[in-house]
Amino acid sequence: MSLLTVGSVAFDKLETPFGKTDKIIGGAATFITLTASYFVKENNLVAVVGEDFPQEMIDTLVSHGVNVDGLEIRKGEKSFFWHGRYHNDMNSRDTVEVQLNVMENFDPKIPASYQDCDFLMLGNTAPAIQHLVLKRLNKRPKFVLLDTMNLWIDIALDDLKALLKDVDCVTINDEEARMLSGDYSLRRAAKTIMAMGPKTLIIKKGEHGALLFQNDDIFFCPALPLEEVFDPTGAGDTFAGGFISHLAKTDDLSFDNMKRAIVYGSAMASFCVERFGSERIQNLSQEEIAARVEEFRKLATFEL
Amino acid sequence: MSLLTVGSVAFDKLETPFGKTDKIIGGAATFITLTASYFVKENNLVAVVGEDFPQEMIDTLVSHGVNVDGLEIRKGEKSFFWHGRYHNDMNSRDTVEVQLNVMENFDPKIPASYQDCDFLMLGNTAPAIQHLVLKRLNKRPKFVLLDTMNLWIDIALDDLKALLKDVDCVTINDEEARMLSGDYSLRRAAKTIMAMGPKTLIIKKGEHGALLFQNDDIFFCPALPLEEVFDPTGAGDTFAGGFISHLAKTDDLSFDNMKRAIVYGSAMASFCVERFGSERIQNLSQEEIAARVEEFRKLATFEL
Question: Name one GO cellular component term (chains A, B) (predicted).
Fold first, then answer.
């Protein structure tokens, strides 16, 4: 099945307890489409970058089979830039600097060849822009996954609530789920958020795993306990990308298959954090992915 | 198989966001032996209380099949007392007051009828006392589980390290594992702690589940996402009690059976937190336990 992803393609500058980077390539849609490249053939990107974005990175996306017909390159403008600093526990971070640049007035364009997409991944960006992409498709995709964050709950709650009515599934972290629902209990928070629209909800808990909710069903997938978490940047995008692209690959929206999809998402995220930026996600083999998923099976399953 | 438990039998006074209690019955060995009563018949207790301890509660233990021959009642003295206050997130707590009373010079006595015990549960108390119990057994039990806490790492580290050499398995929470090992990564912390003696290690993460380590094997069991956590007091003791008493019931120390034991421990702990103190653990049926374990199976297992 075909996948369409919208989101940022951008520069990141990172500081972690393990080191610093200069400007490297980041952005939600970068992590998502690179991840999806291991699962689907029709891997379509909608994003905007400035003239400063390196052709080499666009070539990397293309070499991974990403369709960049929907990647707008704005002359005379600069790409989105985020500078983040992680705390020692790697679970919290500060934004040192943000430059919106081309994202300030991003007007997503959908190439005609993308119009019949089956799966839509609304990577983290302003809810109004995510909604525009959905509205600009002639036919509603069979599955729409929304990723969002605390910033949009803070500054664009009405847009987010309008969008929530139109999506099938949301990924959000535990703190954001509490913020959006006003409830500390994640089980009750999940019910409140699903009542806002999405039939399925994923609450990400970082190193503590992820919860999948649908009706009264709950599934929990742990994170793999790693010796080192080198850089958590992009882990949430990679997780969402692995989840939706496993669904797109298998074209099966049953709860049992969503469980498998969460495991694939978690496996891909566990690779992501092993290196700075998207380095690890650019260099994976199907054998490595299969072996990692098997590690999750050993870690989480038991027989009574 | 027979189980011997040593630990506190005591009074607790609790404050949670949901309410307060007067003095109620608490103590590690209370939670452990009540939990074990659903699994094993030979359920032997070694503990000390003061003259103020209500006969009614001793009768409750006896009615659950707990052998109280090793429960010393000290005339003219008072029972151990702990007053705790939980924060709003229920994951952290302050000690408002502690009165050691009879625990100050606890000299554990092992009745002759306990001497051939197969499984030994060293419930949370001073490591020197836990070690005494082990040394006072004529025959080493086939499995010794140690539960400990940050207090003993702080004030009795040498005693704890000596004891670690003589036990098979330890349960400890994530913060304490980091404290004891000096390593933030739980995977590396586990290796460090196992090198101190125990072949098997359980790291408890409260609402985030528990990790079981043995050699290079890792198993993760989630906590059940509950709508309400009413009172976490005793959850760790109940967890340890469920773990060891499933092992004692089945007399199977394979890693696969330890996985099941962790699930039983987690299931019992999920009941514990539903009411104040040991109320819920006093009133369970085998049907409720089986149904709860089945909830864990649905929550955690998947097929690839």
Answer: cytosol
